[in-house]
Write a structure and sequence with these properties.
CATH topology: Rossmann fold
CATH class: Alpha Beta
Number of strands: 9
Oligomer: single chain
CATH superfamily: Vaccinia Virus protein VP39
Shape: globular
Order of helices and strands: HHHHHHEHEHEEHEEHEEHHHE
Radius of gyration: 20 Å
Length: 359
């Protein structure tokens, strides 16, 4: 996962070299060791750029970024994000992710035996920190493949859960799984977050790695506050950098992540959401070390490699003759994210949990 933290950027010669290297990586011409070393080199360079200048200058830069985002739509490039991640055939994710299809950071410790257990551990942690109880009305905002929705529907059978996604494929998948499991307390809505307006209040709003696809958090927090019951709480699971927020923009060949996987997205900073407390007040905050995500990405990569032939057949259905290139793009994506979250032993980029209450 690349960063774009400086306006200076690489030289023309460097861009040419990066472009050639990325094309070779997409052709599968580099061993994994080289891909990981190259990712770490890019991370080191971007971090040097991000800390250049005085503390005051960096704070002015961050304030200017927050102000510019607050003047725009809640989310941008929604269709592109859909195409890059959420309209990829479900069988691909069933092949690569764990059994609950949790497409976000899982939780590991020395006793975690496998990806399935790590998925469940993070889902349990999410529910505990969100203070969810049976019988609540729950909004799963940006529900992905329904990992939290379906898990919570089983765990809290007297609760009613509305899952919101901007993907028709994900909606059909979740509804199918709910039917298979005879879960009658799940409803799924497909909508653009810019347009979503529920007609009922919620006791809990849960968002798991959805805020990274949002640009105007101030506007979204205002809406979430309106959706909550008076004593309701909002919980967010967000990957972030320890100090520096930046957006993903496709400007040159070094912006590979923005072009192929994260158009319209951003890397929040750990503390940036404290700027947005007009409507929601931060009640509690936790840090989840980045090595949890590093291990998650490595587990996805291992499953992809173990099922290479099947993955290529699935990707061929969507990408035709480009299937091999996309296979190696997904490999590079998982490797890049793994290295990003392992950087400095998981203390540079990591996951933060936030619990909010209405002001």
């Amino acid at each position: 996962m690349e960063l774009k933290a400086s306006t200076r950027g690489p030289s023309a010669k460097s861009l040419s070299t990066i472009g050639i290297a990325l094309r070779m990586a997409e052709a599968g011409l580099f061993p994994e060791l080289v891909l990981r070393a190259g990712t770490r080199h890019l991370l080191q360079r971007r971090l040097r750029e991000s800390v250049s200048g005085s503390v005051e200058a960096r704070e002015r830069e961050q304030t200017a970024l927050m102000d510019s985002l607050a003047g725009g739509p809640i989310a941008i490039d929604v269709a592109a994000a859909n195409e890059q991640h959420y309209e990829v055939p479900a069988p691909f994710f069933e092949l690569v992710l764990g059994p609950r299809l949790k497409y976000s950071c899982c939780h590991w410790d020395n006793r975690t035996p496998n990806l399935a257990a790590a998925e469940d551990a993070m889902l349990e942690l999410t529910a505990r920190r969100a203070k969810i109880q049976d019988g609540m009305r729950i909004l799963d905002l940006g529900c992905g493949w329904g990992s939290f929705t379906l898990w919570a529907a089983e765990k809290f059978p007297n609760s009613n859960i509305l899952a919101v996604s901007n993907s028709h494929i994900q909606r059909a998948f979740i509804e199918g799984r709910a039917t298979e499991r005879a879960l009658t307390n799940v409803r799924v809505e497909t909508t653009d977050i810019n347009d979503f307006q529920p007609d009922e209040p919620f006791d809990r709003v849960v968002s798991i790695e959805m805020m990274e696809h949002v640009r105007n958090h101030r506007a979204l927090f205002e809406r979430i506050a309106a959706w909550l019951a008076d004593d309701g709480l909002a919980f967010s699971h967000i990957f972030c950098h320890r100090s520096h927020a930046y957006t993903y923009e496709h400007r040159d060949p070094s912006d590979w992540m923005a072009k192929n996987f994260f158009t319209g997205g951003m890397m929040p900073s750990e503390g940036m959401f404290q700027r947005y407390q007009d409507d929601l007040v931060l009640r509690e905050q936790w840090r989840v070390n980045g090595r949890h995500y590093h291990r998650t990405c490595d587990a996805w990569l291992e499953r992809l490699d173990q099922n290479r032939d099947t993955a290529l057949r699935i990707l061929a259905d969507g990408y035709g003759s480009d299937a091999s290139r996309w296979f190696h793009r997904w490999r590079l994506f998982f490797i890049a994210c793994s290295e990003l979250f392992e950087y400095r032993n998981g203390a540079e980029w990591f996951v933060s949990h936030y619990l909010w209450e209405k002001r």
